[in-house]
Design goal:
The structure is a single chain. The longest helix is centred in the N-terminal third of the chain and has 122 residues, at 31-152. It contains two helices and 14 strands. Strand 9 (271-279) and strand 10 form a beta hairpin. It has a domain at 208-341: Jelly Rolls, CATH 2.60.120.40. Strands 4, 5, 8, 11, 13 and 14 form a six-stranded antiparallel sheet that branches. Helix 1 (2-24) packs across helix 2 (31-152). It is α+β, with helices and mostly antiparallel strands and 343 residues long. Mean pLDDT is 76; it is low at 154-207. It starts with a helix and ends with a strand.
């Protein structure tokens, strides 16, 4: 059809052209010459038609390529929109974590203020304890002096050491009859009537076993979203013999040097979490919980040698980097921390 239209157009144009040519030609034109001229012009038209068809094919191919590029751009746009949505969700999660950290910081500041007051009280108690130790040492020295005097003399008067700092502890010191006391101690000793077979000096020691140290505490609430190196504060204390553990901080402060056994259990909602046992800021043992899509627990046990005033606590190490991970379950006592002195 296209070829027919082109030929018709050509004949119309060439008709006028032939007419003009015939009018310009001096002699008559034969039919053969007209047919030859038409065939020549028709060949030119066919050649141009081939060129146009080739160009149309190229344009159609370019159109298909443009459609493919547009489809790829639409796909990339959808991916970018999904990434933006994921980033928005992550931003909200981080904002929530920042808010939790701010709350924890405020609690920590309040605890630091309380601990400063407690530390002052503890220092006062330590000074009092040191004074008691010095007092006991002085009394024992006086007992040794009395024993030496007993070996030298045969007759004694019973002397009582008057120490008002701790009147519950009495020391009976034998002194030779008629002999003056040491002038350094003379002001603190009062005389009693002479007695025979008076028992030697004795010091009353407090009852109880200070070497028994043990504690147990558990978590009474949930950590909805744990963070790396976050200390787990086991706040409900059920046993605290020796008063080494603090439910306010989740830290055990060693009352006396020795070998201790620690065990901790962590329950999580899903996925996995790893924990560490920390001594004075350095990790000494590790624990693992989970690696499933359901609630699970993990328990770890370790032995460690501690010095007095060493601090031990449990903290989070790593967990799945997805929003659903890091949920630690506390109530009713599924996450706990225990320890006791072995020797």
């Amino acid at each position: 059809m296209l070829l027919f239209l082109c030929v018709a157009t050509f004949l119309t144009v060439t008709g006028h052209s032939l007419a003009n040519d015939l009018t310009d030609t001096a002699g008559p034109v034969t039919d053969r010459e007209i047919i030859l001229d038409l065939q020549r012009r028709l060949a030119v038209i066919e050649t141009q038609q081939t060129v146009y068809v080739t160009r149309i094919s190229d344009l159609e191919q370019r159109q298909q390529n443009d459609h493919q590029i547009i489809a790829d751009l639409v796909s990339h746009r959808n991916l970018d929109q999904k990434r933006i949505s994921d980033l928005d969700n992550h931003l909200e999660t981080e904002k929530s974590r920042v808010s939790d950290l701010k709350d924890q910081l405020k609690r920590a500041q309040r605890l630091i203020s309380k601990f400063s007051a407690y530390e002052s009280q503890i220092n006062d108690m330590k000074r009092t304890a040191n004074l008691d130790k010095n007092l006991t040492s002085s009394k024992r020295q006086l007992v040794d002096i009395g024993n030496r005097q007993e070996n030298e003399d045969s007759q004694y008067d019973v002397q009582t050491l008057d120490l008002p700092e701790n009147p519950a502890m009495d020391i009976f010191l034998p002194v030779e009859q008629g002999r003056k006391l040491n002038p350094v101690l003379d002001g603190s000793i009062s005389r009693h009537p002479a007695k025979e077979d008076t028992p030697l000096a004795r010091v009353a020691e407090p009852s109880g076993n200070p070497d028994v140290i043990a504690f147990h505490a558990y978590l009474s609430f949930d950590y909805n979203r744990a963070s790396t190196h976050m200390e787990i504060r086991f706040d409900r204390v059920t046993t605290n013999v020796g008063h080494g553990y603090s439910g306010h901080t989740g830290t055990f402060t060693c009352p006396s040097s020795g070998v201790y056994m620690f065990t901790w259990t962590v329950c999580i909602q899903s996925h996995f979490i790893t924990t560490e046992l920390i001594r004075n800021g350095a990790a000494i043992a590790a624990g693992f919980s989970g690696d499933t899509d359901y609630r699970s627990v993990g328990t770890s046990v370790t032995l460690v040698e501690l010095n007095q005033n060493d601090e031990v606590w449990v903290r989070v190490d790593t967990y799945n980097a997805i929003p659903a991970a890091g949920h630690i379950i506390g109530n009713p006592g599924l996450t706990s921390f225990s320890g006791f002195k072995v020797r």
